Amino acid sequence: MPEITMPKMSDTMEEGKIIRWFKQPGSTVNAGEPIAEIETDKANVEIEAFDSGVLTNILVQEGTTVPVGTTIAELRPLTSDQPSPTPEAERPSEPAPVYTAPAEPTPPPVTPPQPEAITEERVMEKSPETEEPKHIAASPLARRVAAEKGIDIAQVHGTGPEGRIVEADVNEFAEHEKGAAPPQPAPTAQIYYNPAEVTEGVSEETLGKMRKAIGERMTRSKQTIPHFYVTSEVRMEWASRVREELNSDEEQEKVSFNDMIIKACALAIQKFPTINAFLDEDKLILHKEINIGMAVALDDGLVVPVVHDADKKALREIASITKELAKRARNGELHQNDYTGATFTITNLGMFDVESFSAIINPPQSATLAIGTIKEMPAIVDGEFVAAKIMRMTLSADHRVLDGAIGARFLQEVKSRLEFPIKLL
Amino acid sequence: MAQLITYREALNQALREEMERDPNVFIIGEEVAEYGGAYKVTEGLFEQFGGNRLIDTPISEEAIVGAGIGAAMVGLRPVVEMMTVNFSLLAMDQIVNHAAKLHYMSGGQVFIPMVIRAPQGAGLQLGAQHSQNLESWFAHVPGLKVVTPSVPADAKCLLKSAIRDDNPVIFLEHEMLYGTKGEVPEGECTLPIGVADVKRTGTQVSLISYSRMLISCMTAADRLSQEGIDVEVVDIRTLRPLDEETIVNSVKKTHRAIIVEEDWKSVGMGAEIESRIVNGAFDYLDAPVERIATAEVPMPYSKPLEKMAIPSVEDIVSEVRKIVGRSAK
Q1: Which residues of B fall within a CB distance of 8 Å from A280?
Q2: Verdict on whether the full-model pTM lies above 0.80
Q3: Does residue B201 share a domain with residue B181?
């Protein structure tokens, strides 16, 4: 009987929470039809059935969080010669373990499916006919060792020939797990205060998934990547003027400064490929695509939607993409592809009147650019004061991958394109 | 005491010592007596033992093996020489239907204590008909034993054991090995037939081989050790009976296996060995079992093409690198 498992929706996703089921046991499900909504560390997404059939068993109740790869439901495929039996008849004699959230009451009756509300948000674009349970290439030894150590093989990344999971991958995964095990909490969670001093006047809140993910990622980055910082000032008069002219056309998509900075960075990266790389032990991995992430602040954290192949896209194209991504990000509607694959990140706090700041690199990347506000202030040109629009930008870069001079030349390249916006076209 | 002699001399010593030890041992074949053998393995024996114990025959392989079987049935210990294994095809009925079956079909009344020696292998530009490796043909047949020594010491000690064995033994020598030298025990030595030998211990991958390819594996292992790759080399030595235990234990230790054989891959010896490994060490395998074998063509006469067809040390080295390799995370 095909099993429906908790899918891995991103590189960092390790568990997911069922928000609600759209289907009840006994319902007929068509391949590609959404069957449940889940919460990941990044966004709320819908999962779709790979096969058509009858949903025979729901094993994970709403509100319950389970690891990636856990069977959450069972589906009996529809066959032409077999009438669909009653759900009772289909229950296996020994039902699989049912996961429920310990503190939660019995779940309320499931809301009936609402297909019209969800058609836009397809997460898995796969043709129904070819869909089979995902095969994991792992050596017999790796499987045995994983079973002995109680590791879900689906979570292990394979580095053997043809990407196969080999024993060493499982052992390294186990080592990593041990390192991250609860007895050794992440440094973000370490107690640097005397709890006795703060027993009064505090309230406690459990960290949300996103806060936890940001915390773990940023801690790992700051602890393992030797950051260095380079700051430069850009005169934005021409960029402002060009932007105003571009936006005077009411019919067209409005272009933001961010869009211009994205384009400027993407073009500058073409000249400095190590900005678009990352370090894997003793190997430098160079990304082929130039995918620019832009940090978007949310009430309870931030997400980094991505403009893929930004160097190949026109300014207006970038503008319409960023507008749509920002909207989806704020509504928690990002698709998986929208927030994965960034090779460089831009973060802008200009709207909060921040002059300049330094950002933490988001691995697997080697650099990130922090943008401050555009401020009107006097500048000296040929010995005379002139009114200027100044923007400060600070590059954080991985010193193992590149040195200060490269960082500086990259900034010069970005600066020259913003100061002469014709170079953005 | 050990002596440094060639594979050819080691075989010659084994024959001489066994003929001295047991008057029932005699040699029969084409050019084995006065000429000293096409590959000079029986050189000097005619002078020592005379025409009654070294019998030159017409070019008639079926008759030669048949005569050997008849002699063995009545208590002699014939050592039959096929000039090369390619000509044994003419004697297949005698070997498969008679030598291998008479003990069984006579209810154990008859023994066939006969050795058929035959050089095989490619590398001397002898063309498609004279460059074959037919070990799997014989290893397929119950009732036969098949021995394929790689080094002079094993050649001597296994030939002595083969002559003393009460069953028909197909003893396959390699034409390219006759001139290779190695340490060989002086005088009496025997080795059990059906026991493999770990010729080099290692931890990362098992090269499983025999005969001439074993030597290529040893060279490859030396080269790979300079890259820090620790290779184990298992010499199977006898293909039937096959020492499954030694092979499986080696793979259980290294978790990776490459079988290197000079016969053709399809339905070749390596297929059998791989099947034993997969059955015996399935949960220990960290990679699919790989095989390196001769190109599936009739052996070309052209020297460069012949060289390309036979597995090289480079082929082995690159396959090992592949099987132990890991990609970036």
Answers
A1: 328-329
A2: no
A3: no
